[in-house]
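Render Galactonate dehydratase in 3D.
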Amino acid sequence: MKIKEVNTYFVRPRWGFVEIITDEGLSGWGEAVLEGHAGTVLACVHEMEDYLIGADPANIEDIWTVLYRAGFYRGGGVLMSAISGIDQALWDIKGKYFNAPVHQLMGGSCRNKMRVYSWIGGDRPSDVGAAAREKMEAGFTAVKMNATEELQFIDSYDKIDAVLERVDAIRASCGKDFGIAVDFHGRVHKPMAKILAKKLEVYDPMFIEEPVLCENMESFREIAAACQIPIATGERLYSRWDFKRLFKMGGVDIIQPDLSHAGGITEVKKIASMAEAYDVALAPHCPLGPIALSSCLQVDATCYNAVIQEQSMGIHYNVGRSVLDYVDNPEDFRFVDGFVKLPTRPGLGVAVNKELVLEENRTPHNWKNPVWRHADGSVAEW
């Protein structure tokens, strides 16, 4: 079996799909995107075609190594996101060839279902107490919300108080055992992050996410010393070598590699194993589409340290289209009592609605994240 064709597609709201077709008629799907840079990533996939056409799609480890090492320059969001989508598609083909879900080819599952959480609020969250209650009544046992709007290095305490009021509203609405994840989104700098983390302790959050950016990962230990809340991060790290530095720094309790940014299934499985050796939990980042989500679940199935899975149904970014629009098997993505069953179909477990994918690609999206500014006109982290 040989790879004969590589296709890429823009699909709303902000995603990119990869389709790899073999000379035996089998095809596999992957999700290759870096949100806001979809065109660059899909162009990078096509740059890699010379390494793919004619190759045996079963040799996933070799293909991954060629794509990563043979190009000389390596790592970073664009290259690793392109590799991620290709890698997912190759695993999809392999599972279909052997008529088995991908996790069965990776040693089998160590669980029979995976806990999931739901997003509430938006970039500037409000009414989160009612939104969390609605998710709880829908069966979810945990939610995640953005913590703050813009925050300067040193900012006013009224912004801190506003965060506390929102978290208090969720706790009051949903009770003491409901999971609350608070995403700092890299918007907070160390001086304010220590204050906010300490003040959030009283609400027993499930975790705080990206209290500072990983480019300042030396600060995680200092923030961890300021509070007794698990710290999660990793969506903006792209390889096991990036995570190696994070593990050596310490201070982080949960890693969140993205299956569409950090080298796909092949690489994230290795990152997860590294994390387990450091007694660090795994909660893959996935504000993306169905192929990325199913790829995450394949890895979650095989990783003892996987604790909860992000998913984007209902997230505020999904305007125009959402996850289930692109699948012909929505029944396999049902959430029951805060869990989703592991994929059982051959390959990744996604029956892609190719007709809709082709329709979306005729008018490619050009999604960009907003540019925020502080009151003094300087650029704020979004």
